Amino acid sequence: MNRIGDKGQLVIGCVLLQTILVGDSGVGKTSLLVQFDQGKFIPGSFSATVGIGFTNKVVTVDNVKVKLQIWDTAGQERFRSVTHAYYRDAHALLLLYDITSKSSFDNIRAWLTEIHEYAQSDVVIMLLGNKTDMSSERAIRRDEGERLAREYSVPFMETSAKTGVNVELAFTAVAKYKTVYTQWHFNTVHTWLL
What does the entry give for GO biological process (predicted)? Predict the structure, then answer.
């Protein structure tokens, strides 16, 4: 089955979805990626990402194979200009904060401003409150995350890279949304061109 991606690329038997993990340093982006890709949590083994790292993983969404090309970005300010370059080609962004860190939550608005400045207007954004396994140290209530997500009209869920709670669901949810949108957009444009 051949499909045309929303950026015009022909993908043989698979939809390509460039997904970027963004958020402050230390919110668990790399751990979330490892949990999704390898199904495990490696405690204390990650230092801050320098620049950009990435992996590929194929998931099936509604009988369609979706190749997620997942980019893990550095959260430190000094690497922001590098991250900006990747926003332009992104199909989906998972924006993370740490539920035990008020500052990482407070910085979400700045991240969203940056995303809206550099990313395409049709990029899928999902807000994730990570580290739910540390609920005894929670600084941000779930309803605060939900309220912020509503304010920016983006989906929201809480995850735990340590236990795996909602990790796969977060990635497959953005893949499903973007796949449905791409099919609708392609069919609409194709019908209009006929």
Answer: protein transport
Nearest to residue 11, comparing CAs of 194, 178, 192? 178
Q: Which residues contact 42 (CB under 8 A, 6 or more apart)?
A: 31, 34
Domains for the chain: give ranges and CATH numbers. Answer: 2-174 (3.40.50.300)
Q: Which two tokens stand for residue 54?
A: 């990435």
- Other beta carbons less than 10 A from residue 146's beta carbon: 15
How far apart, in whole angstroms, are the C-alpha atoms of residue 135 and residue 190? 48
Calpha distance 188→99 (Å, rounded): 40
Question: So what's the pLDDT on residue 193?
Answer: 42
Better-predicted residue by pLDDT, 194 or 91: 91
Q: How confident is the model over 129-164, as pLDDT tens digits? A: 999 999 999 999 999 999 999 999 999 999 999 999
